Amino acid sequence: MKKVVILLLCLGSIALTGCATTIEGNNQNWYYAVAAPEHYKVWVEHLELEKPGERHWRMPMGNVECCWKGPKGPFGSGGRLSPFPNLIGIQWFSFAEQKFYQRLIILPEDLQEKMSVEATYQTSMGTFKGPRNSLIIGVAPGGTIVLWIMNQIGNEIEVARMQANEIEGDPTQYQKRTKSYLDEHGSYLEKHGIPTEGW
């Protein structure tokens, strides 16, 4: 009987070790990026992420000018989500509108689960499956925010859409950058305007 108990304890220990190894071996790297529509460049002043009780961190962003949708988007500059946050705070200046926007984003509770679902993607080596491990935060004129998840441009899924708050700010602090922006995109704005809906 004593040998049976010892054997069961050993087997239980091996099983638990196997589970722990599997969980650790399946650790997924999560990423984020911030995107804006082409021709509607923004300056992200603050991007803060938080997993309450575990970590609060800031990510420097600055200039964001592409890409919202199409063959190059949604895609933008970003980094790793480590740990996976519950909250994202973002504040930006819209060069086209000369306005400041801000929003605290409470991520959907099932977002990480949705991102874990495998999706097909293609590389020069062939077709593969993997989790949609990138969260794209799109910011557009009018204060529109759209969240997508994806592992490759073209298989993105929209998971949330919300409205940022317009806040007070001094556009003259971006005077030089605004001039450079208008030199590059002014004729486009004159022709197409600044759509604040339909993003």
UniProtKB/TrEMBL annotation:
Keyword Signal attributed: yes
Signal peptide: 1-20
Keywords: Signal
PROSITE patterns assigned: PROKAR_LIPOPROTEIN
Top-level division of the source organism's lineage: Bacteria
InterPro entries for this protein: DUF2931 (IPR021326)
Pfam families cross-referenced by the UniProt entry: DUF2931
Protein name: DUF2931 family protein
